[in-house]
Specification:
The protein is of the alpha+beta class and 320 residues long. The protein has 2 domains: 104 residues, Type 1 dockerin domain (Orthogonal Bundle), CATH 1.10.1330; 207 residues, Sandwich (Jelly Rolls), CATH 2.60.120.200. It has 5 helices and 16 strands. It is globular, with a radius of gyration of 23 Å. The termini are close together. The C terminus is likely disordered.
């Protein structure tokens, strides 16, 4: 009987070893990011977290950037970049990609995003935004305001593409999510605004020989002001969106409560269904669409569920 029990325990150990060696799919990761931090009673402009603390290199001229406490009553601080001078250098924060990151980004795709508010321009054209020099291409997303005060985006291309993003003169009245997402193995990039695809196929312009870097701020000639609450550069592969925020196999009321509890959160992103770095209305829309349906299953079972099943089988064998 002792020999039989030892054999059965060895079977459980073998199950655990096999589980540990399953070929789990690779996950995306954040190469570099930035958060200005939450607003507290002790918050002052000088205490707002600076991009240098997160590893970004400062290309700003003196006085071109500063912390802003609780802009628009959002409960989060921001880092304001102001370009009021028509001459170079343009103020921005930059990060160089490592050789391994360049290889991974080319194979698995990349995403550059920010939650930010365009504050003001000086009537000279697109300026503040996001830029990426990757794969021998340059991608510039520049923002400015129309004559009526609406937010518009310009994507650099052989023929620049401009899109009006807001109406009613509300361009500077709110923070928005801006995202550039690359298709793995290609030069194609999709531009999204608040979770909506504005342009699905954009390949920037040629930039052969340029260093592989990402940056935010102003990389263009015109001038403007912008508040950044967070910025992230991620490398894929990226998973599909989900409404199963608590990972229990379906989209139900518990998932809605998860969304409600973490709405607007920066550090708890369990209800970030579209993986854009923030829990917001776009995630609620995903939940509404999927409510009551079984969650999309992964190609490989969740480790915890598989382990429980294997242990249950082994436990039945141990009954003597």
């Amino acid at each position: 009987m002792i020999v039989r029990t030892l054999r059965q325990l060895a079977l459980v150990a073998a199950f655990g070893f096999a589980l540990a060696n399953l070929p789990f799919a690779a996950a995306s990761y954040i190469f570099i990011d930035y958060h200005a931090g939450p607003t507290t009673p002790q918050s002052t402009p000088a205490s707002v977290w600076s991009p240098e603390l997160w590893g970004w290199v400062d290309l700003n001229t003196v006085g071109a950037a500063a912390g802003v406490v609780n802009p628009l009553g959002t409960g989060m601080n921001a880092w304001r970049i102001t370009d009021a001078v028509p001459t170079a250098p343009n103020p921005a924060y930059v990060s160089a990609l490592t050789p391994s990151a360049i290889t991974s980004a080319a194979r698995d795709g990349w995403r550059l995003s920010t939650f930010a508010r365009y504050v003001n321009d000086f009537g000279a054209g697109a300026n503040m935004g996001l830029s990426a020099f990757i794969g021998g291409r340059a991608y510039h997303l520049g923002l400015d305001l129309t004559a009526s005060g609406d937010l518009q985006a310009t994507l650099n291309d052989e023929t620049p593409r401009t899109y009006q993003l807001t109406t009613g003169g509300t361009g500077a009245s709110a923070f928005h999510r801006f995202e550039l997402q690359n298709t793995p193995g290609s030069s194609n990039v999709a531009f999204e605004f608040d979770g909506q695809v504005i342009n699905p196929q954009w390949d920037g312009v040629a930039a052969a020989g340029h260093d592989s870097v990402v940056n935010w701020g102003n990389q263009l000639g015109p001038r403007g002001v912008m508040d950044f609450q967070d910025v992230a550069f991620e490398i894929g592969p990226f998973v599909e969106q989900t409404a199963d925020f608590d990972a229990d196999g379906d989209a139900d009321g518990q998932d809605f409560l998860s969304w409600q509890r973490t709405l607007g959160a920066t550090f708890d992103r369990s209800a970030d269904g579209n993986f854009d770095g923030r829990v917001d209305g776009a995630d609620l829309a995903i939940w509404r669409q999927a409510f009551g349906r079984p969650a999309v299953t992964q190609a490989i079972p969740e480790p915890s569920a598989l382990m429980l099943a294997l242990i249950a089988i082994a436990a039945r064998r141990l009954r003597i």
